[in-house]
Hints:
This protein is of the alpha+beta class and 170 residues long. It contains four helices and five strands. It has one domain: Alpha-D-Glucose-1,6-Bisphosphate, Chain A, domain 4, CATH 3.30.530.
Amino acid sequence: MPHADFRERHRILIHAPPSVIMAEVEKFRIRDDPVARRALWLRELPGRLLHKARRKTFDLDDFTCLEKPDPLTLAYGLVGAFWEADYGLAACDSPAAFTNNRDRGVCKLLLTFTVTPVSDETSYLTTETLVSCPSPEARRRFAPYWYLIRPVSGLLRRRLLRIIRTRATA
């Protein structure tokens, strides 16, 4: 992504081989974490009350796998008006659709996972979220949403990392 208006990064040290860690990243789904499920239920409550709910609860399956340039890096993309009750998701079924989306009323979100080996059996797992707002209007609409959800998002990302660490070291 050429620029990010909003960014969040978390990392954790995991005592497991890099390939095991990345395999757990690829298997993880938000629904695996009861705290995340509850947070999403609350996030989606206004949409249900306004009859603008999505058919299914939001999860990583809603993201598009953008690339896996090497065995230790994975990138997912999402395009939408995330502040809307139903996330305002735009069709994005390929890396090209993500890259070529020029709608100035929606934002692009890039979610990356990177495994950085420290030794053969120990690595850092880093997750980073970057959001690009293509217009001042999109930035104005997204900013309050970001500052509202960022503390919960950070908590969920740290939980995600701990869950992956637990699974990778089991």
